[in-house]
Every structure is written in C-alpha cells, then in structure tokens.
Amino acid sequence: MLKNYIKAARLRTLPLSISGIIVGSILGNNAILNNQLTVLQSPIFWLAILTTIGFQVVSNFANDYGDGLKGSDKNRTGEARMVASGAITPKQMKLAMIITAIITLIIALLLIYVSFGQENFGYSILFFALGIASIAAAIKYTVGNSAYGYSGFGDVFVFVFFGLLSVVGSYFLYTKQINYTVFLPAISIGLLSTAVLNLNNLRDQEEDKKNHKNTLVVKLGNSNSKKYHFFLIFAALISALIYTFLDYKTIYQLVFLVAFVPLIKNVKTVAQNKIPAELDSELKKVALSTFLFAILFGIGHVLI
Q1: Phi/psi zone of residue 212: left (φ > 0), alpha (ψ -120 to 50 degrees), beta?
Q2: Would you give the end-to-end CA distance of the chain in angstroms?
Q3: How many helices (H) and strands (E) does the chain have?
Q4: What is the DSSP string of 52-71?
Q5: Under 8 Å CB-to-CB from 251, ≥6 apart: which residues?
Q6: Average pLDDT of 253-267?
Q7: Contact call for residues 275 and 178 (beta carbons, < 8 A)
Q8: Model-level pTM?
Q9: Per-residue CA distances from 191 to 46, 121, 163, 207 (Å)
Q10: Are 130 and 169 in contact (CB under 8 A)?
Q11: For 47-61, what is each residue's pLDDT tens digit?
C-alpha cells in the first residue's frame, strides 16, 4: 500500500517544485550575508524545501483524486494513476490529502516562526494565509465542479505558485523586503514550470477533449500550443539574461545557459512531434532542465 502512495506522490515532480526555492533562497541569503555557501546551513532553506514538497505532494494527491473521480485518467498516457487504477480508493486518497496538508501546514508554521519570529506578526499572518491559499489552489486544480484545471487556468496557477510566489516568497523570508529585479528569475522559473504543464497537456490533449477537460492546449489547438511552448522557453531565457545583465559581475553568472541546451533541443522535438503520446519522455527532460537551471543559476552567484 505504501508503494502506491509513493507512486501517487509522483516523486519525479519534486525537483521542479523546489527549483524556485533554490533560486529565491540563494538570492535572499546573498542579499543579507553576501555569502552563498551559508544557504545550506540555513533552517529557513530546509524548512522552505520541506514545505514546498508538502504542497506538491498535496497537489499530486489531489490531482490523482480529482481526475480519478471525473474519469479523466482512464486511458491516460504515462505512469498509472492510483485512484483511476483502483490501487487506492477515493476515500483513502482524500484522507492522505488531509493528513499531508496538516503536516505541511505545521512545517509552514515552523518556517514562518523561524523566519519572522514574534517581531513581524503581520508578515507571519500574510505567509500563513499564502500557505492556506497554496493548499486550496492545489486541491481546486482538479477537485470539485469548478476545478480550474478543467477551464484552462492551470497555467496561471503554475506560473504564480511555482514561479513568482516560490522565488519572491523565499527571497522575502530572508530579507523581509522585495527587490523587484528578483521577479525576473521568478518569471524564468514560472515560465519553465508552465512549459512542463503545457507538455503534459499536449501529450494528453485527445483524452482531455473526450473528458471535457478544457486545458489551454485544448482551447488553443495543437499548433498554437506548440508556439506557446516555444514562447515559454525563450521568454524564460530572456528574463534570466536580463536579470544577469542588470546584476552582472562575472562571466560565471552565465553558467545557467548550459541548462538551456536540452531545452532548445526540446523545442525542436516538440516542433517535429506528430504523435502526442511520444512527448511523455520530454516532460522529465524539461522538469530536470528547470532544476538544473536553478542549481546553475545559484552556482553562478556562489562563484561571484
């Protein structure tokens, strides 16, 4: 049974989910200490990582639960879904969602206390509200009659929560202030994360149409969705380059360009694709490339 819950947690999605935390934490730590090496010693960093992983697992459980109830996963391509396959009952998955959400909120409260203490009560309330909003958004993606993942708004959710909130929020945990240039790498992470979702929806477009899951791909069509994918990749690159130009100190800051080599290859693969199911292997490539981008972007700042 535990093996089924691990499958439902979709461990391959976790590196993508923490990419924004890595970038925001390194930039935030640098802003207050000017020493990137200490970020790994920070309890804020590790608590933020655990909180984000918790949110992601809740989201994956909810996605499995919601799509399973709606029948959207019956003939899906890729790894099997636990509720749709009958390996986990809807009642069991719902309980797993609740337990994971409670544990994640407890870790989030500890993160908030470590970051803000008792001196910044207003910030504590704000971040707790953001935590509640993150869990609610994760669940409402596929659960319920008004699930926004079935109305084409999943891309907005991923961009905001995986990109803007993840990077800028973790930066704020360190600095207690916002540097607006930080939105540039946040946009890069958000766009690359959205590209992963877009690939997922390109792969599943035929089944989604049958199940009335009106993702952005279903609304735009295959050709326009491919153009949208190109935009996401190249806009992410441009945003990262603009930030580097504004904060330029050494050539090492451009080391993140290595991560865009497989991403450019992915653009070519998507352009030539004729069979949507064959895009499944590209999902992992883009997700891991986003994680690599976060790591290399951080290394570039360590080497300053």
Answers
A1: left
A2: 48
A3: 14, 0
A4: HHHHHHHHHHHHHHHHHHHT
A5: none
A6: 94
A7: no
A8: 0.91
A9: 24, 32, 7, 25
A10: yes
A11: 999 999 999 999 888
